Amino acid sequence: MAIQLESIFDDVHLSSICGSLGSFQEDEKGDTVYVKDEECLEGLQDIMRYLRRDNPETREIFLQLGKWNLIKTDLLPIIRTYHGDFDLVMAATKLVVFLTLPLDPSSSNLAEQERLLQRSKAAFLEGETSAVIVSLVAEPLGRLEERGTLMESDVKLVQLIVTLFRNLICISDCTPTAASGNDHLTRLKDDLLKRFFDESVMEVLLLIAQDADRSFFVEDAPLLLEIFCEVRSSSASTLVPLSGPQPAQVVSTALTVEACFAEPDA
Description:
Organism: Cymbomonas tetramitiformis
Subcellular location: Nucleus
Order of helices and strands: HEEHHHHHHHHHHHHH
Keywords: Cell cycle, Nucleus
GO molecular function, one term: DNA binding
Radius of gyration: 19 Å
Number of strands: 2
Largest sheet: 2 strands, antiparallel
Domain Timeless N-terminal: 33-240
């Protein structure tokens, strides 16, 4: 009974925290905008604490946040609306990373988890969230080009952003049978990759990949390899705009990153 009561309390408390992040309101022009509450940052940090103690097998907190559609209703609007508030955007981005991590095959409710991941992936096709997130690494990459090195905080930031885009790209599309008439769910990967090319995400990932053999990016190399292999296998790689990175460049970079892991000749 104690465990059950604690679970109920957690749900109520978590719901209260999520409800106090912010809300959509009508501004003076009659447009609907997202307005954060005063304790929004603290709320995001509290949600992260919940996620960190989530049961890895049942993932009850992940499932609950997914059912509330937190990524679409709050996290992405926060990122888009308050892109000038670095701490707030970072806190929201960290939560999105946690909520899009690859499935653990040993956990339960895999079908439900996958469905929620697909819904989160679809949310990234609305607005220009990817462009805002990728802009976070512009300054660190500028310092890298200028000084040839990065601060530890810069490295962690780049790793966070690369992890997020890896998470999103690797979420599987819904099968036609499971889509139940929602055909857009069956082509999320291609649609997302097109969005990534349009919003310079792939361009930035290519810049990072060019330094994949340097010590501060060595942990990103496996993630970059996953990303470029997904691009290589996607039909979207043949439909990218001429102004963006070209498929041949993407494939070449994938092979370059892969070479970082090649076994040395005996």
